[in-house]
Amino acid sequence: MNLSNFGLDSITLAGPLESKLAAAKAAGFSQITLWATDLADYPGGVADAVRVVRASGMQVTALQVLRDYEGLSSSLHQYKLDIAKHLLQACKAVGAPLLLVSSSTSAHASGELPLIARDLAKLATLAVPLGVRIGFEALSWGRHVHHTDQAWEVVEMADHANLGIVLDTFHMLASGLDADGLADIASDKIALVQLSDFMWPGISSAEERMDTARHLRVFPGEGAHSKELSDLLRRLDRSGYRGDYSFEVANDDYLQLSPQVVAQRAHASAKWVTDQVLRRSLQVRQSSAGHSTMA
């Protein structure tokens, strides 16, 4: 298995966009997941940010994130649809083949699954001419869709070739993992697998899930759920999934470290996933910095 199957999420690394791209590349990664704010907040503007990304030679795995989109009506729906169109244009500009959509937390959103599916199918259709795919992810604190099986039900119901499901191991572990349900998900409908863990056995409330997700995630192999995570990843591998993995590890401690140090931790985690979980050798190009291994 190649390191090219793995990418870093920009939220994991401290520093400006150039530093994040350089650190990921120096650690041997060839792809990165960006947030729309990486482009919008860039000092020189979006166009300059796009030039920086393209000049780096790094592939963009996906663009994060369209929130609270589905299940709205009237002017709220039109407002979110307009935001979505701008994000799709940002995807095209930076070469991101995937726009991530997280399940709604809005009190104004309907919980009717056919309506949610219809809205996602509409977005997937809008994305087709731009060469962008839509990936739908269940937030563990989502108002109506907060489990992977619910997200998969919606994706199946939408029945759109340009719509897939995003699996985030943090949310799956935090909401009570049912690994058996993965057997129902077609491997070619998995748009992306986002990898992270956390340091304690369980999370009891939505507030704690939000706080942990945004500030205290760790890399696979560092957390308290290595056994469950290993089982999940082996099941995905046996099901035929051969797509990308992105380390989405939001951690306030890591943001106090140099991006090079954190990128090396990500490399060690990729080695843990391949060597110890999937029982394969990790094929990488040598970088100038030494690589650590994770036992």
What does this structure look like?
With 295 residues, the protein is α/β, with parallel strands linked by helices. It has helices at 17-26, 36-40, 46-56, 74-94, 113-127, 148-158, 169-174, 206-215, 226-239, 259-277, and strands at 6-9, 31-35, 59-66, 98-102, 133-137, 163-168, 190-195, 245-247. The chain is built from 10 helices and 8 strands. It is globular. Helix 1 packs parallel to helix 3, helix 1 (17-26) crosses helix 10 and helix 5 (113-127) crosses helix 6 (148-158). Strands 1-2-3-4-5-6-7-8 form an 8-stranded parallel β-barrel, surrounded by 5 helices. Strand 3 (59-66), helix 4 and strand 4 (98-102) form a beta-alpha-beta unit.
